[in-house]
UniProtKB/TrEMBL annotation:
The gene is Polr3e. Residues 146-169 are annotated as: Disordered. It comes from Smutsornis africanus (Double-banded courser). One of its GO terms (biological process) is tRNA transcription by RNA polymerase III. This is RPC5 polymerase. Residues 444-684 form the DNA-directed RNA polymerase III subunit RPC5 C-terminal domain. Residues 146-155 have a biased composition (Basic and acidic residues). InterPro entries: RNA_pol_III_Rpc5, RPC5_C. GO terms for cellular component: RNA polymerase III complex. Pfam families: RPC5, RPC5_C.
C-alpha cells in the first residue's frame, strides 16, 4: 500500500485495437547512418518483395552532392563494377556509385507480441505487426566486380587463339544415368540446404511502388493505424479480466525455448530426468549408456527407488549379458528406421545386434570378422554393434566392456533364469535365420583371463545337485503336507511318510532331459551369467510326489492344449521354443520348473488329441531331428476338422504338393466344391 501511495495514477488512457492493417503491417529497421547524413538525404528508387519468404530488397539513391560523400571513392567503385564501357547492363550508369541496395532478414520468428502504437487525443491505438525486418547493405556489386576481373584475366591468358584451333580441341564427355530415387532419398534431398536455397531462389520478386513520407497516399494509409470504430463491441479482445489482459500482453515465451541451443543427444539433465515416470527414466538411461550394471542404475535413479519396480521395468528395455544389462536392439533401432551407413532396415539391424549380444552370453571375446561373415552386414554396422557393448583389444578381438557381475547373479537367480529362457528363444531364432553351425552355437574355450571360470568335475556336479535339492526340500515338504491334508478332508485314506521320499543321487530314468543346444559342449562356459551346471534342473530327476506329478501334468496339458488351438501344426523344435518362452513368463517356484523331458512333452501332445504326421522329408535335408517331428491337432471341434484331416493325410505322403492337387483332393474327399477363400483358410 505504501508503494502505491508513492506512485499515484496520473492519467488513464483508453486503448483501441486497429484491424485495418492486420497481417499487412511490417516494421523496417534501417542500419545506423552517420549523424551528419539523415534519411532525408536518401530517396527510394525501387522496392521488391518475396511474400512467402518475407524478404524485401530496397534500392536507395545516395546524395552525391552531400559534403560527406567521397566522390573519388564512388568513381573507383563504379569503374571496378562496370568497367570503362557503359550500357544497359551497367550497375552505375552515371559512372559514379549513386545508389545502394539493402536486403532484409527476419529479426524475430514470432512477432505476435509486437504492435505499432499511435497516440492521439488521449487514445492509444494498437496495430499488430505481421513482421519485423532488418535491412542490411547488400554488396553483390563487389561480386560483379570480381567476376569481370576474372574474365579480363582469362582473356589476357588466352591470347589470340583462332577459332579453328578451338574447334580442333576435342573434349571427352562423361554420360551418367541417374538411378530411380527412393522415398527416403527424396525426403533427404527435400530437407537439404541446397534444395531450400534453390526453392527460395525460384520465388519471383514482386515489384513495389514507394511513396514518400509526405505523399498523399502515405497520409491516407496512415489513417488505417487508428481504430475505425470506438465501440466496445468491436474491441472485445480488450474486454478481459486483469489476469487475461496481462497474459495477452506477455504470453508464455515459446519461441525462446525453441531458440535455446539443444543439448547433445547423449547429455541428460538429471533434474529433468527424475520428473519422468520410472519406466521412461530407465529407457532413456539405457538408450544413452547402452551397458550398465544394476548397482549403477540404482545409484542414478536416486535414493528411495524400489528395486523390485526397477527390475520389472529394466526387463522391458534391456537383456542380461554376463550379469550386466544391455539395452535391447529394438530400443536403439525402432521400427521403420534404417541404418545410417548402409540403409539396411531396422529389422535386419536388430537381428544382427542380437547375434552379437548372444555371442557375448557365450564368451567374453567376439571376433569382428566372424560376426560380419554370419550377419552379412556392412563393417560400419558391425562396428557400431561391438562399440555399444565391448572394447577392442589388439590381436585378440572385442572384449565385453564390463566384468562379470557375480553379485547380481547370486542375489536374483529368478531373474537370471528367466533371462536365460529368453536367450534360448532368441538362439533358436538366430539358428534358423543364420543357419548357425555347431562351432557358432558352442562357446570357444576361454584362455586365461582375469575372471577365470571354475572347472567342475562330475563328482562335484553331483554334490552341487544334492545341495540344491536340499534347499528345495522344505518347499517340497510343504506341498506334500498340503496334499496330505486335502486327501484327509476328502476321506481318502492315503498314508505317506516323508521319509519314503528318496532323493536319487544319479539319473536312473530312461527319459532324457529337454535338449537345449545352448548347453552342448559347454559345461564350463558362461550362459547368461550362469554356469551350465548351476542352471541344471532341480526336479529330483523328474520324480516328484504323486500330488505334484498331477499338478505338473495339469499345467503341461493346459499349455499344450492352448498352444495347438492357436497353431494347429507344430514341430517339436518350435513347441520346445514356445514352452521355454512360457517358462520365462512364469513366476519363480512354479511347478513346471520341476523339469519336463522331451518324452513327457511328446506324450502330453499325443494325450491332448494331437497326432504325429510322418512327413516324408527329403533325405538330404539340413533340418534337425526335432524339426522333422511334426505334430498336428486332429480334431479342433470346428467345421474344418474333416478338411484339415484330409490335408494332413496329403502331407503325410509328400512334403511338397501343388495347390490345384490339394483343392481337387479336398473336393473329392469332402464331397463339396471349396472356393479359393475356404482353401486358403484351411491351408493357413
Amino acid at each position: 500500500m505504501a508503494n502505491e501511495e508513492d506512485d499515484p495514477i496520473i492519467q488513464e488512457i483508453d486503448v483501441f485495437l486497429a484491424r485495418s492493417l492486420l497481417e499487412k503491417l511490417y516494421l523496417f529497421q534501417y542500419p545506423i547512418r552517420p549523424a551528419s547524413m539523415t534519411y532525408d538525404d536518401v530517396t527510394h528508387l525501387s522496392a521488391k518483395i518475396k511474400p512467402k519468404q518475407q524478404k524485401v530488397e530496397l534500392e536507395m539513391a545516395i546524395d552525391t552532392l552531400n559534403p560527406n560523400y567521397c566522390r573519388s571513392k564512388g568513381e573507383q567503385i563504379a569503374l571496378n563494377v562496370d568497367g570503362t564501357c557503359t550500357d544497359e547492363t551497367s550497375t552505375y550508369s552515371s559512372k559514379l556509385m549513386d545508389k545502394q541496395t539493402f536486403c532484409s532478414s527476419q529479426a524475430a520468428s514470432n512477432v505476435s507480441r509486437y504492435a505499432a502504437a499511435v497516440y492521439k487525443k488521449g487514445e492509444l491505438h494498437l496495430t499488430p505487426l505481421h513482421g519485423i525486418l532488418q535491412l542490411r547493405p547488400s554488396f553483390t556489386y563487389l561480386d560483379k566486380a570480381d567476376a569481370k576481373h576474372r574474365e579480363r584475366e582469362a582473356a589476357n591468358e588466352g591470347g589470340d587463339s583462332s577459332q579453328d584451333e578451338a574447334e580442333d580441341d576435342v573434349k571427352q564427355i562423361t554420360v551418367r544415368f541417374s538411378r530411380p530415387e527412393t522415398e527416403q532419398a527424396r525426403q533427404r534431398r527435400v530437407q537439404s540446404y541446397e534444395f531450400l536455397q534453390k526453392r527460395q531462389a525460384e520465388e519471383h520478386w514482386v515489384h513495389l511502388h514507394y511513396y514518400g513520407l509526405k505523399d498523399s497516399r502515405s497520409e491516407h494509409e496512415r489513417q488505417y493505424l487508428f481504430s475505425q470504430g470506438h465501440g466496445f463491441a468491436e474491441n472485445t479482445e480488450l474486454i478481459k479480466s486483469p489476469s487475461e489482459y496481462l497474459m495477452m500482453l506477455m504470453p508464455p515465451s515459446i519461441e525462446e525455448e525453441n531458440d535455446k541451443p539443444m543439448a547433445p543427444s547423449n547429455v541428460l539433465s538429471m533434474a529433468q530426468l527424475r520428473t519422468l515416470p520410472l519406466a521412461d527414466q530407465i529407457k532413456i538411461l539405457m538408450k544413452n549408456v547402452k551397458v550398465m550394471p544394476f548397482a549403477n542404475l540404482m545409484s542414478l535413479l536416486g535414493s528411495g527407488t524400489d528395486s523390485t519396480a526397477v527390475l520389472r521395468c529394466i526387463q522391458q528395455v534391456a537383456m542380461l549379458v554376463q550379469g550386466n544389462w544391455v539395452v535391447k536392439s529394438d530400443v536403439l533401432y525402432p521400427k521403420d528406421t534404417s541404418s545410417p551407413h548402409s540403409g539396411v532396415p531396422a529389422e535386419v539391424l536388430c537381428r544382427g545386434r542380437d547375434f552379437v549380444m548372444w555371442k557375448f552370453t557365450q564368451d567374453r571375446w567376439v571376433v569382428r570378422k566372424e560376426v560380419a561373415a554370419v550377419t552379412k552386414l556392412c563393417p560400419e554396422d558391425v562396428k557400431d554393434f561391438l562399440e555399444h557393448m565391448s572394447v577392442a583389444r589388439i590381436n585378440k578381438g572385442w572384449e565385453f566392456m564390463l566384468p562379470y557381475d557375480e553379485d547380481f547373479v547370486k542375489k536374483h537367480p529368478d531373474i537370471v533364469q528367466r533371462q536365460h529362457m529368453l536367450w534360448m528363444g532368441i538362439q533358436a531364432k538366430l539358428e534358423k535365420v543364420y543357419n548357425l553351425l555347431k562351432e557358432h552355437s558352442t562357446p570357444k574355450k576361454q584362455e586365461a583371463q582375469s575372471a577365470r571360470p571354475l572347472l567342475v568335475s562330475g563328482e562335484q556336479r553331483v554334490n552341487m545337485a544334492k545341495a540344491k535339492v536340499k534347499q528345495n526340500y522344505g518347499q517340497l515338504e510343504k506341498e506334500f503336507q498340503k496334499q496330505k491334508a486335502e486327501m484327509k478332508s476328502n476321506d481318502i485314506s492315503a498314508k505317506m511318510d516323508v521319509s519314503n521320499i528318496r532323493i536319487k543321487e544319479e539319473p536312473v530314468s530312461d527319459e532324457e532331459p529337454m535338449d537345449t543346444s545352448a548347453y552342448k559342449g559347454m559345461n564350463n562356459g558362461i550362459v547368461n551369467g550362469l554356469h551350465a551346471v548351476e542352471d541344471s534342473m532341480d526336479s529330483l530327476n523328474g520324480h516328484l510326489p504323486g500330488g505334484c506329478i498331477d499338478r505338473v501334468a495339469q499345467e503341461l496339458k493346459a499349455f499344450v492344449s492352448s498352444t495347438f488351438k492357436k497353431q494347429f501344426v507344430l514341430t517339436l523344435s518350435e513347441l520346445k521354443r514356445l514352452f521355454n518362452l512360457h517358462l520365462a513368463s512364469l513366476p519363480p517356484g512354479h511347478t513346471l520348473f520341476s523339469g519336463i523331458s522331451d518324452k513327457m512333452l511328446q506324450d502330453m501332445v499325443l494325450d491332448t488329441g494331437c497326432k504325429q504326421i510322418l512327413v516324408p522329408f527329403p533325405p538330404q535335408t539340413a533340418a534337425s531331428p526335432d524339426e522333422l517331428k511334426v505334430y498336428a491337432l486332429w480334431e479342433a471341434g470346428d467345421t474344418y476338422d474333416q478338411h484339415r484331416q484330409v490335408l494332413l493325410e496329403i502331407f503325410s505322403k509328400n512334403y511338397r504338393v501343388r495347390r490345384n492337387v490339394i483343392q481337387t483332393q479336398l473336393s473329392q474327399e469332402c464331397g463339396e466344391d471349396l472356393n479359393k477363400q475356404e482353401v486358403d483358410r484351411v491351408l493357413k
